[in-house]
Amino acid sequence: MKNFIKKTKGITLIALIITVIVLLILAGVAIGSINGGLIDKVKQATAEYNNSVNTEGDTINNTTGWFDNVNGGSNEGEGSQSNLGSTDGSWDNVAKVNTPKLAAGMTPVAWDGAGNEITPNTQSEWYDYANQQWANAKTADGSYWVWIPRYEYQIDYTGVKQGVDADVSKAGKIDIIFIPTSTKSGSDGYTTATSKRQVVNGVTVDTGITVSSDGYIIHPAFTNGTNDGYANGEWDSELAGFWVAKYETSMENSAGESVKTTVSYAVSNVALSDSARAVSKPGVIPWQNINIANCYENALNYGTKLEHNEYNSHLAKNSEWGATAYLTQSKFGRNGKNVTWNNSKDGNLVYTGGGAGEAYKTNVNQSTTGNVSGVYDLNGGSYEYVAAFNNAYVDGGTGYFLGTDYISASKNNFASTGGSSTRYATAYSNSTGTSYATNLSDFTNIGGVDVDVSHIGDGIQEAWIKGQYGWFQSWIGFTYSSFPFLCRGGLGFRYW
Prior knowledge:
By secondary structure, the protein is an alpha+beta fold. It is built from five helices and 28 strands. The strands form nine sheets. Strands 1, 2, 3, 6, 7, 8, 9, 17 and 21 form a nine-stranded mixed beta sheet that branches. Strands 11-10-16 form a three-stranded antiparallel beta sheet, with helices on one face. Strands 19-18-20 form a three-stranded antiparallel beta sheet.
């Protein structure tokens, strides 16, 4: 759903699973205007992207954060109580949604009718998902986060039949039902796939994916993936939800001042420290010019720097990006409308929240809800690295896995050839040079070579329409032999 504006890459998101925070690091370079028709736009977007990924000095990395809630077993009982209601991820049987799970150091926030930030006193002031009001919170560093509750979903492809319909300006419809953690694999009426491309209750899914008797998929970002090796981007327990950073991540110094990371690679491509802090705040330039190894490591260390190891922070996985995108497309978000493009610019750079200062208050169509309570910067802004990699990529010692440009400040690699998925990162596999599908079968086999380029819930194959195009004229691509990492958003890729 993103428009053409991002060229370089960086931290996309941080996820906290409260017990976990997920940090995503965004990457991208804002460009000026794009001329020509849709085909020309996509070709230019592809060229710009390929150039950006091969020129690390030009890459931009922004950071956004995610919190994932870790809840083992059922959460249908009573949780901690206040005027806000439960704040422990337990199931609200009235609102029919998992309550936001607040950890130590987190404070609920909301905005009144005049756009003023307030501390909510009641649950209705804080959130109302049925009316597109998502729960927000702040951490001690002033970063903003948005709660994404656990759900199951079903996609209606009417008008966007894959490989057939040609109107790529349209999008499918996503119906979402919020569910407690007790609704999971093994629950009555739910069946879990035991093989790839298995038809379960009328839906074709892969190993580890759970489908209800009426064809709703429990989104894997919320499920326990220990039995299938986290192949679909799962966690190690059933989650009530996760917190996602409200804005692209930016860098602050020890005085709390925003740092423009485009000054030099020495300033930007660094580890977290007192003088290089990751925050999610509006009206500033995102963190840029940082490689994926530092994105990944900084995201993991975010909670530690706040002295909250229980946040379990990490670079957002592709599944977590998809979970946020799907909720946005549903009736609880934009209800089928595209998120407006963030094209705010300072020269060649964009601002978080769509503009300097408090521009986010008027740029509400750039949020996932169409109001101040949503997530910003998913459409437009910068390319976003996610914690995904191509394990079929062969590194000769000077490439993306082992080359010095892709080593973190502490001399660690992000990925490796033949690497497996973990709860923090998801493996894909594509040994061919093909970077996008020309037909539906390319998502599993390209020219006789078996590939694994998309997973259920990640918004790649499920949001694909035809050729290079996905919903809302997005460019749907995947990792390939010449570039083993996956970016979302940005120039050409957009939201999906």
